[in-house]
Amino acid sequence: MAHFDTTGLEDFAAKMVTQDIDVVRVGYSDIIGTERGRDILVNRFARTVGDGVAFCRSVYGTTPMGDVVDIEGGLEAGLPDVLAFPDIDTVQLVPWEKGVAHVIADIYNPDGSPSQESPRMVLKRVIEQFADLGMRPAVGPELEFYVLERTDKNPNGWQRYAEATGNVYVAGLKGDPENVLLRTLRHLSAYGLEVVAANHEFSSGQFEINLWHSEALDAADRAFRFKSAIQELARQEDKLATFMAKPFNDEGGSGFHIHFSTWDELGQPLFDDPTTEDGLSKRGRSAIAGVLAHAPALSAISNPTINSYKRFGPDTLAPWLIDWGLDNRSAMVRIPPERGRAARMELRLGDASANPYLAIAGLLAAAYLGIRDELEPPDPLEGYGYDPSKAEKLPGDLGTALQALEQDAEMTRILGEPFVNTFLTYKRNELERFNHWVTDWEFREYAYHL
Q1: Distance CA 74, CA 60 (A)
Q2: Taking the model in full, what pTM does it have?
Q3: What confidence tens digit (pLDDT) does each residue in 27-63 have?
Q4: What share of the chain is helix, strand, coil (3-state, %, to 5)?
Q5: Is 448 within a domain?
Q6: Hey, which of 28, 103, 128, 287 has its CA 20 to 30 A from 121?
Q7: CATH assignment at residue 39
């Protein structure tokens, strides 16, 4: 049995009482980024979490439909436990639930070793690799999502909120007649997520909220909390918020863009070099090259669902090719025009369904390998992208991406083989279930004429 450092738990609980908090929600990410957790009374907090809070390890193998995939160490091992221990430095008061505070937990095995399937632990593992190079990665997440409202017109019971055309970048009641976005933005600000701005995106009911950049683990924690909070706040409005990659045939998908840079131990930016033609340092160029070299494997983590690959294609503003460009939004990797402390890359590959911890870990792993191996990228994209004669295509489906991840030995080593094996098992089960499911498209296409 693990024995955790319980120093500070009693003081933490006492502090919560002084802030009128009587419940602490201990939450953590599963494989797909869904929050799992437990509400614990403050007056029993230290006693309850002192040896870790037990959860069945097969939470990492539980599908959205409630099926349990037989991951290694799961069903066949008798459904053993993992232990959640709160990182009390992550506590935030929940502004929309009176008397509730939220804290993020790290997941351990009963012997006290870190759970290698835990997405937060995967990211910590990659950050340690950067520390060995004397670097501190910084990340700024950008996430899009749809808000849906109830209807009896569609079989699934939902339609896009505030349906109208041409509302990209509008503010106020025009694209948000019930002020849902404004209320959400204020709640998120009070939740300590370092949100900075919000806007209506291209499609009806589609919005984007930007989070400020910070060190990679903190940025991932905030993005994880952000997704859970958006969904909770929508439920309070009797609406549904979805980060599904492409929920509609007639509208675009939702992206998860990640801005990434790295700093030395003195806080100096390492992607900037004013002596070069493009203002990028050798390290910055190598990071780009690493992301390009490992992009097929990275797709499996950044585009983790069957639906993800329906977002790709020419003229979608979602990547289709493995390329990079200077301030070019049609490239997979965009280098924004700012330099100096703001020198960075923007990975536009991911979609909003990606687990924030894993999407960031995958990007950092690929960049780390490029920096370590001093790779050099090809020439940047000129003009509008989507010309397959200029660059290789990204994987076109989840199965191909999973195969690329399995075959990328370097990415597997950095992310951890136990995690990669669990991820592949989980996702291949998803493919298997989908391939046996008769879809509405098939019935529409075949039933009348065949």
Answers
A1: 9
A2: 0.96
A3: 999 999 999 999 999 999 999 999 999 999 999 999 9
A4: 35, 20, 40
A5: no
A6: 287
A7: 3.10.20.70
C-alpha distance across the termini of the chain, in Å: 61
Same domain, 38 and 139: no
Q: State pLDDT tens for residues 173-189.
A: 999 999 999 999 999 99
CA of residue 273 relative to chain centroid, distance: 30
Query: In this structure, what token pair is assigned to residue 199?
Result: 């806007």
Q: Are residues 247 and 389 in the same domain?
A: yes
Spatial distance between the Cα atoms of 36 and 283, rounded to a whole number of angstroms: 38
Query: Which residues pair with residue 330 across a beta bridge?
Result: none
- Residue at 231 is within a domain: yes
How many whole angstroms separate alpha carbon 238 and alpha carbon 136?
41
Number of domains in the chain: 2
Residues constituting the chain: 450
From residue 425, give the alpha-carbon distance in Å to each of 19, 117, 126, 431.
44, 12, 22, 10
| Nearest partner of 351 among 401, 287, 281, judged by Cα | 401
How far is residue 385 from each of residues 249, 268, 390, measured CA to CA in Å? 23, 33, 8
Upper half-sphere CA count for residue 337 (Cβ side, 13 Å): 3
Domain of residue 217 covers 125-440
Residue 406 lies in a domain: yes
